[in-house]
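User: I'm curious what two different proteins look like when written out as structure tokens. Can you demonstrate?

Assistant: Sure. I'll show them one after the other, since each token string lines up with its own sequence. Here's the first protein:
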Amino acid sequence: MRNLCTRQGWIGDYDFGFLCLPNLPGFRKQAPAKFIGIKDRLPLAVAIIMGFQHCLAMLAGVVTPPLILSGPGPQHMNLNTEYRSYLISASLITCGLLSMIQMTRWRIPGTRYYMGTGLITVVGTSFTIMPVAESSFAYMYQSDFCPSVKSDMGVITQYLPCPQAYGALLGTTMTCSVLMILISFVPAKVLHKLFPPLVTGITVTLIGAHLVGSGLKNWGGGSGPCINHPASGNFIRCPNVDAPNALPWGHIKYMGLGFLVFISIILFDIFGSHFMRSAEVVLGLIIGLIVSWTTGYVNTQVINDAPVVTFLWVKTFPLSIYTPAIIPMLVIYMLIAVESIGTITACCDVSGVEVSGPVFETRIQGGVLADGLNSLLAGAFTNPPMSTFAQNNGIVALTRCANLTTGYACCFFLVFMGVFSKLASVFLAIPESVLGGMTTFLFANVLVSGIRILSYLKWTRRDRFIAAASMTLGMGTTIKDDWFSYALTAYKGSNTTVNGLIISAEMIVNSGFTIAALIAIVLNLVMPKEPEDLDNEESDSHPV
């Protein structure tokens, strides 16, 4: 407490010029600041500023899944603004609370196992869950699990709100999260044997490819019924005729708003300071918000109607288990576990702690266990599964500060933004095209992450064959996502078990990343290794 009354305790001797001055051509580059380790003393003001920086870096990733999944369209829940505002707030609060569990390292009494990493490993809603959720919601509407309005020909003309779909998603994710908890007790070397970069790289690449398509739909004006350019009705304009300055899907003005966000992100990365570069996605979104607000595209009524404060469980959802989604969800959890190992390894590296040995292995085990527990708790907190956010490793590297106080400050800002729901409702007021310019860039980063993982391969003949076999159906059904939808239509009975198995088979095959992952895993285990594969086995086990 005595330090809080001194300049040294608040500001210290940290070089703020390194953090804040822009990167302009012709000007002298700022010398790097001194490295601040996990246990080094950190001035309070520096901790608060860097915690806010971590918060901004992950903010877009935290709010994107609930924004998209709760929105309009055949693959989403079509919820009203009251529910959507709650889900954004719940996501912020959940990520703040569960990040503290992930960062706080302690030994489980009576065992040799740990919980948490003891590093700045913040968590957020995993993007990888979105393809499974979207496929599940689409089948729920088709099977009348979710309500809809149909024409005389039986064609769905309007998708009605379906909160029970979200309850089914949460129940399924909570059930499947047990797998990740069990995986945390499996040695990392065994996991790398089962899920080498060849398998995870293909899977992440296909997930990114699917998500980029979703982002482009929003960039054009929205992913609801307006995307089909109906000749009449409430959706002849996007997102609907009641929206401010509504235009048809794909209008040049919508394209321009999204492009403004996209080009702003690029400019912030080229010319911005270290602080601005770490928050470039949010800053680009703010630029798009300002321009769309001044030109009359922002729905301010959403902000006015939002409550001042909120918390978890203000809205609840009936829990159930959607059995067709279980196998794709298990694949997702295996992928999240392997990704967590790579993210935690990278965090150890930039934090200046061991990247091998018993302490490192307990950080990996504790981090994966915390991710599994967090995914279970997230469902109870009305939020989809959690995963460790890799982008915050970049903040640690940029700021050269690994002190945990900054991570806890980040958690405070996330919870604060979630509790004051007026802040969360701002994201609902932003036009879909502006959000699309941001989310398409975010999703492209997922695609690039998959390509980066694949770049570690030596691309032997065996690797090329497994990749080609996996991509045959994986990429094919990502591009043509209803390819298998008519293969099992011969059965016309009412047996719920048989119908459930048919839907499960369709979801597995039509979810490109799921079928690709299953093919890659099986072929990787059964195909004999050639001499060149054995020589390269060491380098192929590079962390994700």
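Here's a second, unrelated protein for contrast:
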Amino acid sequence: MEEINNIDYIENIIKDNSIVLIYFLSNEKCSVCTVLKDKINVIGEKYNIKAFNINIDKFQELSGKYDVFTVPTILLYIYGKEVLREGRYTSLIELEEKIKRYCNLIASKGNN
């Protein structure tokens, strides 16, 4: 999972990819964030999703731009549109199910 610290870069990633997962975390304030990071990355890899993390301790401007007021927060973009936002207490099983449904939807649209 690549760490992002540039607004232009993340905007281009969102625009140029069909599906993108962004994970907002804090190393200083959130021990759960560090544990979840690897698990979120595994989900991204499983569904071939470009996954990125943004450390709000290092780059607060991005958390403001994306209206992230709590960590951890997970955003999922499909074709440049935010379709999923999960914050704080996130069930990884439910998150993976939601992501799987979106991936299946994209795959079915690609076959039409």
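A detail about the second structure: The helical segments are 7-16, 31-46, 60-65, 92-110.
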